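ok trying again, last paste got cut off:
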Amino acid sequence: MSSNVMVMTDASVDAFVDSVAHPGRREDARVLLELFRDETGFAPRMWGPSIIGFGWYHYTYASGREGDFLATGFSPRKANMSVYILPGYTDYSEILAALGPHKLGKSCLYLGRLSKIDLTVLRRLIRAGLDDLGKTWRVHPT
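nice, full thing came through this time. structure:
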């Protein structure tokens, strides 16, 4: 049985955000840090070297694979901001239609500059994703 490569660490979230090379992406990361903290009520924690997570859950699949993973969070990647708010099994197209420019992955959302995003809608999306995740897995605070 393989284990998760992405695990919660004790690395400093602030030091990570301060180390983001691109000034605009660094500022957007600071905005998201506060937005996620306010919306979730959870403390930020590093997951692996580059993801900031809020809350966590333990999963067990029918295959027997199990592990822990962040409930929601983001990563200020070089090309875009990766936001992990979609459990992967719920349709959020109605909320996403009002968000602003974005691209979708299976369970993540890719954003450019936050100045083009409706942050009120992003808050709704974070809450909806977290609430839906909690219907399947017990979400724990960080």
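cool. Residues 23-40 form the longest helix (18 residues). Helices lie at 13-18, 23-40, 93-96, 119-136.
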